[in-house]
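PROTEIN DESIGN WORKSHEET
SECTION A - STRUCTURE
LENGTH: 118
TOKENS:
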């Protein structure tokens, strides 16, 4: 995982809820298993053999964040990030784009987390 990917993942998992702790532990050992074929920065995680325990009691959810820049700003493309958790395990970090693919994750400081299921 690149430093930028790790920063975005850490932002997505920031919060006071103890239910996020197992996901942060998973993030510390997660490997990137693949990326998206479209050219965007989306990554899939591999936790097999990493000794990371699944999060409980929540087994499947998404965390969302969006770009801080307004889509109405000239030259700015709207984008966002979705963190997918499946069966209590980190599954993928998706970079959502609407106008053109974004090949690398933007800085975490450019994101605002919109939803936290906890």
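SECTION B - SEQUENCE
RESIDUE ASSIGNMENT:
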């Amino acid at each position: 995982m690149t430093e930028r990917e790790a920063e975005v993942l850490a932002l997505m998992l920031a919060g006071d809820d103890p239910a996020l702790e197992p996901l942060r532990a998973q993030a510390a050992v997660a490997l990137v298993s693949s990326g998206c074929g479209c050219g965007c920065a989306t990554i899939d995680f591999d936790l097999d053999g990493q000794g990371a325990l699944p999060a409980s009691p929540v087994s499947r959810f998404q965390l969302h964040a969006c770009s801080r820049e307004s889509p109405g700003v000239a030259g700015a493309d709207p984008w966002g990030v979705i963190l997918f958790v499946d069966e209590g395990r980190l599954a993928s970090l998706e970079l959502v784009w609407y106008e053109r693919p974004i090949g690398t994750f933007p800085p975490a400081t450019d994101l605002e987390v919109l939803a936290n299921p906890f």
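SECTION C - NOTES
The longest strand covers residues 89-97.
Residues 33 and 84 are 15 Å apart (CA to CA).
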